[in-house]
Amino acid sequence: MSKILVIEDEAAIRRVLVKILSEESETYQLDEAADGVEGLEKVKSEDYDLVLCDIKMPKKDGIEVLEEAKNIKPETSFVMISGHGDIDTAVNAMRMGAYDFISKPPDLNRLLNTVRNALDNKTLVTENKRLRKKVSKNYQMIGESDQIQQIKQMVEKVAPTDARVLITGSNGTGKELVAHQLHEQSDRSKAPMIEVNCAAIPSELIESELFGHVKGAFTSAVKDRAGKFEAANKGTIFLDEIGDMSLAAQAKVLRALQENRISRVGSDKDIKVDVRVIAATNKDLKKEIAEGNFREDLYHRLAVILIQVPALNDRREDIPELVHHFSKKIAQEQGSVAKNFTDDAIKVLQGYDWTGNIRELRNVVERLIILGGQEISEDDVKLFASKS
Fold it and tell me: What are the 4-aspartylphosphate sites (modified residues) in this protein (predicted)?
C-alpha cells in the first residue's frame, strides 16, 4: 500500500485531490495537511511514498517544506502543485529534488499519470538500493562497535556524492572494504572501480600505470596504452597506499583532480576524464608533508572527507562477530561445515595483541579451522594461535 500525503492550504483543492486519488486506487493510503508546518511535521513522523505539496502556502511555503524534508528523508518523492505564476519556482523545485509538478486546477489524467510515475520511480529507487546492499555484502564491514557504526553512517552519507575521500588506518584494518562500500553505494556503481596499489608499482612506472603512455614514450612502450584513470572513466579509482606515490606522479594526480584531464606519458594531448577519486594510506600524511615526501596541495584535494579505520585492538568487541564471519566464509571456500568457537576460545582471541589487525585475525581463524578439533576450544587457540 502506497502512503500519500497531500499538503494544500486551499481546502477545496485538497478535498478534490484526496477524492480523485482515493477513487483511483484502493492501495493508496491518503493523509492530508492544511499548511506547510503541519505537512512537515507529518513528513517527520511518518514514512510517505509520495508527497503532493502546494508551493504557495502560509506559515511555510512548499519550497521550504521540500528543502527541509529532503534533508530529513531524502528518499521521499515530492510532486509540487503550482499556480499559473509558480511555474519557474516549480522547475527550480525539480532541481532541488522534486520528481515533477502539476498545475492548478489539476488535470485528471496529468495528475494520475504523475502520481503513478512518481510511485513507480520510488519503487525503482528502493529496489536499486536493495540490490546495491545485496552486492555490497561481498565487501561487508563486520562489527557493531561504535567506531564501525560511525564509519557505516558516514559511508551512507558520503557515497551518493562525488566528494573525494581519504581513508586512513594501519595495514590490515580493512580500508579497501570502506572504498568498495563507497563505490557500491554510489551512483557510479554501474561503472568500474579501478584499484591501484601505489606501493606495489615501481616509481618509474607509476605514471604510465595511472595515465597510460603512447608508443615510443620509453623503451618498452611498443604500443599506445590507456591508464587506470581512463579505465575508471564514469566510475571510481581507488589509489591505495597513496603515501608511497612519487612526487612526480603526485603532481600529475593533482592536475587530474584540478582539471579533470590527464595526458599519457609521451603525449601532449589532453584526455578528459570523469572519475571519482578515493585514496587510502597507512602513513601519517601530515608528517610526510613536513618531511617533503607528500604534496600539501594534493592532500587538501584528496582529504575532502576523512575516514579513519580503527585498529582491531581498538574494537575488540567485534572479534566474536568477525570470527563467526570468517569461519563461515572459510568453510564455504573449502566446501566444509563452519566450525563453532567456544566462548573461552573467543575470550582468548580477544585478549591477543592484533598488530596485523583484521588480516591477521582471518589467518589465525583459518589456521584454527584447519588444525583444530570439530569445535575450536581454548586449548586449540593456545596451541595453534599463540601470540606469545
Answer: 54
Domain that holds residue 228: 159-166+188-302
Q: For strand 271-272 and strand 261-262, is the pairing parallel, antiparallel, or unpaired?
A: antiparallel
Residue 380, domain member (yes or no): yes
Cell of 244: 608511497
Asked, for residue 353, whether it belongs to a domain, the answer is yes
pLDDT tens digit sequence for 333-364: 888 889 999 999 999 999 999 999 999 999 99
Q: Using CA atoms, how far apart are residues 277 and 238, in angstroms rounded to an integer?
A: 6
CATH of the domain at 228: 3.40.50.300
Cell numbers at 106, concatenated: 489539476
Give the pLDDT confidence of 221-232 residue by residue, as tens digits: 888 888 999 999
Cα dist from 118 to 71, 84, 165, 325, whole Å: 19, 22, 33, 40
Return phi, psi of residue 377, to 5°: -105, 175
